[in-house]
Amino acid sequence: MLVLLIGIGTSAAAEKPIEIGLPGWSAIIEPETLSVRARINGQPELLAAAGAPHAVESVTRAEQSASWTIPALGIAAKFTVHENRLHARFESSRDQTFEWPRTGEDRNLLALILPEGEGLYVPLADAAWRGRLSGQCFTAYGRLSMSFWSYWTQSGTFTYQVISDIRTELCTSARYGRIAATGRHEFLDRDQRPAYELEMWAGGPSPIASAIEYREGLVGAGQFVPLTEKIRTNPEVSLPLDYGRR
Length: 246
Known about the structure:
CATH topology: Beta-galactosidase, Chain A, domain 5
Largest sheet: 9 strands, antiparallel
Radius of gyration: 18 Å
Distance between the termini: 50 Å
């Protein structure tokens, strides 16, 4: 299996960055690197996803979308607006492991919000947390209780939600004295290589805003299943003793 990391390669000619406006923020995307910078309510640009350059082809731009191919990676990329969220979709022409986005490197990011167990709030420069999390991977469909990760900034949160959670995981590492987190998705020929999809957005000024917004997104898409319904379909799921008194 071929493993490709967004962080290796060269580019023949620079493609102009693509800016896409969304409610409350705008995304500036560099096609060759797949880097995304977020401009949020007039604040300094935030590096939301990092990468290194590769030549691109077939670049198309519209007011609320952009797409192109990266031949060296066998990847077709498309970014579209979905309400206040930037939707990223990647298709692969071959069997490979694709790593994107690489996050956590911007100095304006203060803490990683990770829905493992009851939830973690991890200061990015904390040495103890760096030692605990470095080298770990969290499956989006199991080890993470909700399929997202988020960052706390001085002005709010910035969140990444994995839409195609099967064969996707979040891997953490130590980079430049901080905790970085990278999405990793397997494209497998035996699965017909379904698309890898992810959404990102600028969120509210609370450490729990990302979880609330994640739930709101599920409700809006008709995908939210309340606990009572889960119990109805699976009696082995139990309610907390005080659930009915809340």
